């Protein structure tokens, strides 16, 4: 199967490492990236500490018509520009799989894609970190979860092969509920670790519990309005479990802030605020998170 990956970050490289032995896996570089500057290989460290050098192969955008499946593993705010770039070269029966944090991306891209385009969603609980452009580490065993965004079914041949060959990968008809659950986890852990500049495990301390609980209350209320049932106690337990399991991890939002990059706050707590505007149910703690993260982003721009 011909697989094209868009996004050579930690998740893109993890997908490449897990699929490259069975399939022809190529990356689509940015339109503005000179070919001479592209890395030809990278070092991958697995969960056991073993390192292996893997070769990178690239495809030109005109060759997307030959792809059997395209996986976009990008920041949420990078999705619309990427889809604008590839849209003229897509064929509708090639699944376009989106792997990103937060919610709101589908609403942004659906208008530029054909009504019959196959669009899927991929969620991940895998842990991976790109230490350098040429060094990626698999930091935590997790799962890949696939579901439908538009017109896609589990019977699609490309989906069947991904489920079979990716490992720890499964199809979920209730992917929207699972996406809301992940949104809730990210809406608590990501902004608070960035605001307080702490590793995930620090959130288990008592001084953060009140703010975490208020965030959970607001998210459950917005999900309920969207006809998604999230059990408050179960969600709280899940968040606490993730905090324990990723205690030594630095959240992606904290890493973005520390590196002076734009964060995905608009698609995480910002999405909760969009829901709040529709539901007329206030979400002051989510608003505070957005305000504080935006202030940190501006502070980094001035530095």
From TrEMBL:
Keywords: NADP, Oxidoreductase, Pantothenate biosynthesis. Residues 3-150 form the Ketopantoate reductase N-terminal domain. Its EC number is 1.1.1.169. One of its GO terms (cellular component) is cytoplasm. It catalyses: (R)-pantoate + NADP(+) = 2-dehydropantoate + NADPH + H(+). GO terms for molecular function: 2-dehydropantoate 2-reductase activity; NADP binding. Catalyzes the NADPH-dependent reduction of ketopantoate into pantoic acid. This is 2-dehydropantoate 2-reductase. It comes from Thalassotalea litorea.
